[in-house]
Amino acid sequence: MKFGIRKPSLKKRLSARTSIKRQIVHRGKVKMPKGYGWVRNPKKYAYNKVYNKTSFDLFKLIKKIFK
Question: What are the domain boundaries of the chain?
Answer without folding.
Answer: 4-65
